[in-house]
Predict the structure.
Amino acid sequence: MIVCRIDTEHFVENNPDGDEIEVQSIANPEWSQIETAIRNLDGRYHSTIRLYTRPESTAEDLEINGGNGTYFMLGCIGGDRFVHVDENQRRGSLTFQTGWQMYSWPRKFCLFDVERVVDATRYFCHNGRFDHSLSWIKQP
């Protein structure tokens, strides 16, 4: 597998020191750990996963956000950021919360099936490229 590190974010609410994001890093993760992290995304307390292919990297190669049936995927190739896009989606935007922040994303950038997210991530982990069964565009 090409992925050498995964970071998962956990939102801690009502911490005595104030709300915060805790990051858990796993070096040389197994596929089962990555898949579990995806399936544990809940869109609030566990809402972001970042995958890295180079140990020294500070910029994620693939990022998965969301949970509970609404996900969006971003990736980086050669310094350019790309986002999954589905032009067949209805128009409009979705507003959702990750941690303490509210986001509004066009529906066309969202995935609504965790199995597609898992499959696209598995492809990336084994091939180091975006899954060709999904469409990707430079992030607007």
